[in-house]
Amino acid sequence: MKLFSGSANRPLAVKVAKALKMKLSPVDIHIFPDGERRIQIPEKVVDEHCVVIQSASTPVDTNYMELFFIVDALKRSGAEFVTAVVPYFGYQRQDHVFRDGEAVSLEVMIKMLESVGVDKVISFDMHSIRIPDLFHIPVTHLSALPVFAQKIQDKFSDLSDTILVSPDDGGIARVKKLSELLGNMPYAVIGKNRDLVTGAITSEGIESGNVKGKKRALIIDDMISSGGTMIVAANTLKEQGIKEIYVFATHPVFSIDGPSKLQTSSIKKLFVTNTVFVPSDKMFGKLRQLSIADLIAAELKEL
Ligand code: R5P
């Protein structure tokens, strides 16, 4: 097996290589003045199983194109099997037609990956558990929830005054799974509305579960983008008398002014993973990153 990294999240690829006691194989990436990329694989890969690690995070289109070119170069150079590790799978929220006339962008990305010759995909906490069914190649859908469960157990000695919270209906399966990992911890669900035109988020309050009398809430989600969902959820919980609010979310997508809004919010600390590289200008004091590199390495060892 040979390991390659695109430029979206090299620190994660380095960690995976270290966990596997391997070296990353080189990828030459040349960027022309007009922004086009030329990719070359200098090593021989004939009949090899090649693994490419590339997150489809911001800038999503550039990172996807780079992945397509790396896979194309590997296949043209004789690679036998290509596994694409795409820890954050961009466009996953556009997985069906919400309004007449829309594209299903996720399906377009899947078609592109399959047609350049990807044989297998490994990804984390996809927006919906049905997404793997849209592929025609095998998909391993990993989750950061075991990493979060471990962190929660290590950090909080007493969980009797704590409740898990999903900030919307879409996260019920996720919060339920984490509750099971933590010995059936109680959980609640907040009702959320997102205006499809403006993107504005509003809360309908606690939809199910009982947060009354609890001191601490842990909000669980798949991703944080603008931060709007988290801030609305935190405000809803504050109104219910919750004193301490922590967030556990897999993908730190962090668009626009999300980081500064989260830093000044009532949230005490946010735990995310390294599925997405967080550049220094998007880091903030309340943010902690947990690594999912060992989970990827363990999965690759099985292949
Ligand atoms: C949506 O349903 C997702 O699970 C996240 O809650 C959402 O994408 C987060 O986006 P934002 O941070 O922009 O509210």
Explain how this protein is built:
The protein is α/β, with parallel strands linked by helices. The protein has eight helices and 14 strands. The longest helix is centred in the N-terminal third of the chain and has 17 residues, at 60-76. The protein is globular and about 60 Å long. It starts with a strand and ends with a helix. The chain binds ribose-5-phosphate. Residues 93, 167-168, 170-171, 201, 221-229 line the site of ribose-5-phosphate.
Name the features.
five-stranded parallel sheet, alpha/beta, 303 residues, binds ribose-5-phosphate
Main pleated sheet: 7 strands, mixed
Q: Please identify the structural class as seen in this structure.
A: alpha/beta
Bound molecules: ribose-5-phosphate
The Rg value, from CA coordinates, equals 20 Å
Listing every helix as H and every strand as E from the N terminus to the C terminus, the arrangement reads: EHEEEHEHEEHEHEEEHEHEEH
Beta strands, count: 14
What's the overall average pLDDT, rounded? 97
Work out the helix count: 8
What's the helical proportion of residues? 25-40%
Could you provide a short overview of the structure?
This protein has 303 residues and is α/β, with parallel strands linked by helices. 29% of the residues lie in helices and 26% in strands.
Q: How is the secondary structure organized here?
A:
Blueprint: E1 2-5, H1 10-19, E2 28-31, E3 37-40, E4 49-53, H2 60-76, E5 81-85, H3 105-116, E6 120-124, E7 139-142, H4 145-155, E8 162-166, H5 172-181, E9 187-194, E10 201-208, E11 216-224, H6 228-239, E12 244-252, H7 258-263, E13 269-273, E14 287-290, H8 293-302
Parallel strand pairs: 1-4, 4-5, 5-6, 6-7, 8-9, 8-11, 11-12, 12-13, 13-14
Antiparallel strand pairs: 2-3, 9-10
